[in-house]
Amino acid sequence: MINIYDDINKLESTLRQTPEFKTLKEAVELVRSDEESKKLFTNFRDIQMKLQEKQMNGEELLEDEYMYLQKTAQLAQQNPKILAMLEAEMAVSKIIEEINRIIVKPIQSMYDGL
Amino acid sequence: MINIYDDINKLESTLRQTPEFKTLKEAVELVRSDEESKKLFTNFRDIQMKLQEKQMNGEELLEDEYMYLQKTAQLAQQNPKILAMLEAEMAVSKIIEEINRIIVKPIQSMYDGL
Ligand SMILES: [Ca+2]
Ligand SMILES: [Ca+2]
Asked: Between the CA of residue A84 and those of A23, A25, A89, what are the distances in Å?
């Protein structure tokens, strides 16, 4: 009996020990503990989620909505604590993508030439 | 120095040993080696990809396109070899989702209450 959970949990534990993970955790705490940064971030995130949901329902975004999202994103990124957090998120995302790339590669290969 | 690749490769190797992975591999080979099944599947997959691309570009699908996709999917699923492959894909997808759920959980938790 193969227990894949042992390997998943091991990987999850190692991921938590990476500098990228630790940097992100610190960056999130800095945003959380600063009222202004926290507000800018949650505002941007809430708008983004609302508009993404709309898009996933097959609705096109109005130009006004798109511009408001862009502006809110711009405002958030001008905040150094949020910018640092977004950059840390990207570094962690790269690891997650790398994990997925390696994991799904043998599955994708099954379909080669099909 | 943390070498996360050791853990990723270990997990990838274990995944390849699961019954779900082996069942999928056999199911894909059965589709590949049967001309009729292969044609039905690749036809469905190609249409699905084309329409998904359209949707990702923010274009809405025409009702005709949607119905054609549904019909091609229906035809494909009436083929027992393809149906078995799609079911095997779902079983493997569940494992991949479970891996991702566990891996990203500590990242998502960072944002709790934000
Ligand atoms: Ca401040
Ligand atoms: Ca046949």
From this structure: 9, 11, 9
Give the distance (Å) from ligand 2 centre to CA of residue B34.
6
What's A79's DSSP letter?
A: S
Mark yes or no for CB contact B7/A4 under 8 Å.
Answer: no
Q: Cα(A28)–Cα(A33) distance, rounded to whole angstroms?
A: 9
Report field, pTM of the whole predicted structure over 0.95: no
Q: Which residues of A touch B2 (CB under 8 A)?
A: 14, 17-18
Distance A35 CA to ligand 1 centre (A): 7
| pLDDT, one tens digit for every residue, chain B (114 residues) | 579 999 999 999 999 999 999 999 999 999 999 999 999 999 999 999 999 999 888 888 889 998 999 999 999 999 999 999 999 999 999 999 999 999 999 999 999 989
- Inter-chain CB proximity B60 and A60 less than 8 Å: yes
ipTM: 0.86
